[in-house]
Design goal:
By secondary structure, the protein is α+β, with helices and mostly antiparallel strands. Helices cover 16% and strands 34% of the residues. The two termini are 22 Å apart.
């Protein structure tokens, strides 16, 4: 009967508009939810089969929810370095637990990037979901895999301890006084080398100098260089100079202070690391050709490749003229390259008082964790108070063929569905995935003006559907009242 079908159509209208009201309510309630994607009820006509001559049978309306998951929200600046937004496509991979994950544990996907460091050092968002990424291996490399979720690990910044960086390079900018008068020890070294008071790097050296007892040879000038060992310990190396009677030549010794920081092989004493001559050109620059011509007598045969090598503390006895760190220090082998002939500086010999302009070194003392930074490529980097930085992991982003078809779960997260297609894991900024925006959060995509407008039209449509029912009821009452 057509009146009955009208009643049913009115009921379907009430049901459909109730669903639309629920979607609008959900949107309005989540207007300030980070990363929330609006939902909209979409209506479709229901048509009943029509029998010829039997009148018209109305089918009504059916509502289905459409999720605008792929719609990007505005990125808003925050003060936290662990707040993350995605500028483009993709989702963060998250889990409900931080540790002990296996293949059976559920992985979810979200755009809600308000992550904080929990009490165990894991990055967790406001819904309690833990951020996943590719870890850095022992050699500092990151191996990505587009399809294996089991390669991902929960990113933990609490497991990062202090760090140190050994010195590998030293730049010396200093001048030696060209008019320096050769000392008695240097003069005797040239005229009577067998004299006990003559300078001799093995028997009467600058490393032996003691200002109290006046033993050894007092340097004409000395440069001290602070260096860091493999554990961040601070060591000191001194470069002592003694003017030779030969024009444009200086005796030089490199030694450790104190001398017992090193163990030396034959030919070195009192903490000496290297001894030899330094030659200068007539315009006061290092004479590379002259030092090459001196051969083994030069401090460095090739001043452009002036490297000191220290063996590890646990190495065996050093060879002749070799140097190891002392066993008690327990530190690693170390090579330090000296830049003595810079284009605008270096070691010079001019007719001016000897002075040190600057000594520049790399390497740092032991430092503690100061902060965490995440760049646009998703690299999570620990910063230490000694200036050292170290990569921890890289955030993984998942993309889908049909992100709007993902299944919504509690916590503003999504799960894979049959219609969404399988995930593809990508580093940020590659293969269609967006860039990471640190210290930014993605706002909800809800537009209040549109939602309130929809609220009015839905209310009116609901009222209209109720009128269908009351009108059909009145018509049925009229029909029944035909027979009195």
């Amino acid at each position: 009967m057509s009146i009955n079908s009208a009643l049913l159509a009115g009921v379907s209208g009430l049901t459909a508009n109730s669903a639309a009201l629920a979607a609008i309510s959900q949107n309005i309630a989540n207007v300030n939810t980070i990363g929330y994607k609006r939902t909209q009820a979409e209506f479709q006509t229901v048509i009943n089969s029509q029998a010829a001559g039997a009148g018209y049978s109305s089918g009504g309306v059916l509502a289905s929810a459409r999720h605008f998951t792929s719609q990007a929200g505005q990125l808003q600046r925050t003060a936290s370095t662990t707040d993350l937004g995605i500028d483009g496509q993709g989702f963060f991979v998250v889990t409900e637990k931080a540790e002990g994950l296996d293949a059976s544990d559920t992985r979810m996907f979200t755009r809600a990037g308000a992550f904080r460091v929990d009490d165990l050092g894991y990055l967790k968002n406001t819904a309690g979901l833990y951020l996943q990424g590719w870890p850095v291996d022992a050699e500092g490399n990151i191996t990505t895999d587009p399809s294996d979720l089991n390669r991902l690990r929960t990113i933990n910044v609490g497991s990062v301890g202090g760090t140190a960086e050994a010195t590998t390079r030293v730049q010396v900018n200093a001048n030696l006084f060209s008019s320096q008068t050769p000392s008695a020890a240097a003069t005797l070294a040239a005229t009577a080398p067998a004299d006990p008071d003559a300078y001799n790097p093995a028997t009467n050296s600058m490393a032996m100098w003691d200002p109290v007892s006046t033993t050894g040879v007092k340097p004409d000038f000395e440069i001290t260089v602070p260096i860091s060992d493999s554990k961040g310990g601070q060591r000191t190396v001194a470069i002592s100079f003694l003017k030779s009677t030969t024009a444009n030549q200086w005796y030089a010794e490199v030694r450790a202070i104190p001398g017992d920081d090193v163990v030396t092989g034959a030919g070195l004493t009192n903490g000496q690391i290297k001894t030899g001559l330094v030659a200068f050109t007539q315009d006061g620059r290092l004479d590379v050709a002259a030092m090459a011509g001196l051969g083994a007598a030069a401090l460095f045969t090739d001043p452009t490749n002036a490297t000191l090598s220290f063996g590890a503390s646990d190495a065996g006895a050093p060879a002749a003229t070799g140097v190891n760190w002392a066993p008690g220090l327990g530190i690693s082998a170390q090579n330090i390259t000296f830049d003595l002939g810079g284009a605008t500086g270096g070691l010079t010999q001019a007719d001016s008082d000897s002075f040190v302009d600057s000594v520049l070194t790399n390497g740092t003392a032991f430092g503690v964790l100061e902060g965490i930074e995440i760049d646009d490529m998703g690299f999570v980097t620990a910063s230490f108070d000694n200036g050292v930085t170290r990569r921890i992991a890289q955030v993984a982003l998942a993309t889908f063929p049909s992100p709007d078809s993902l299944t919504i779960t509690t916590g503003n997260a999504y799960r894979v569905s049959q219609d969404s297609g399988t995930y593809n894991l990508k580093p940020p900024g590659t293969g269609g995935s967006g860039m990471i925006a640190a210290s930014q959060l993605e706002a909800s995509t809800v537009d209040l003006s549109a939602e309130f407008t929809g609220l009015i039209t839905t209310q009116r449509a609901y009222s209209a559907s109720s009128k269908i029912i009351t009108t059909a009821d009145e018509m049925l009452a009229e029909l029944i009242s035909i027979k009195r």
